[in-house]
Description:
The protein has helices at residues 9-26, 31-38, 42-49, 55-64, 71-74, 82-87, and strands at residues 101-102, 108-109. It is mainly alpha-helical.
Amino acid sequence: MKFSDAATLDARARLLGDRLTEQRLQLNISQSEAAGRAGVSRDAVQRAERGLGTVDTLLRLLTAYGIADRLELLLPEPQISPTQLLAGERAPRRRRARRRAATAGGESQPVWGDEA
Length: 116
């Protein structure tokens, strides 16, 4: 099953746990041995394999299984667009809008001097 076929986040988490289990079994190691390699408890491995683990445990297990480099496929480094390369700069950072000061009547008025 693909992650995109899983209908809910819980189903995706269980699928991730199943994949961790499959990877461990392909390495022919027990949960206890996986825990020792990853520096976590056996209970942490069991939780991860049920889809209930933490990000820390996931990263430790991926490293112990020798597949942490595959995270690059999951979250590749953002690339600069060709247009930005030609311009020689990155895209401008988006900034959060500032709040406006409320007047006595409850209306919002711009705060002068905040143009920058």
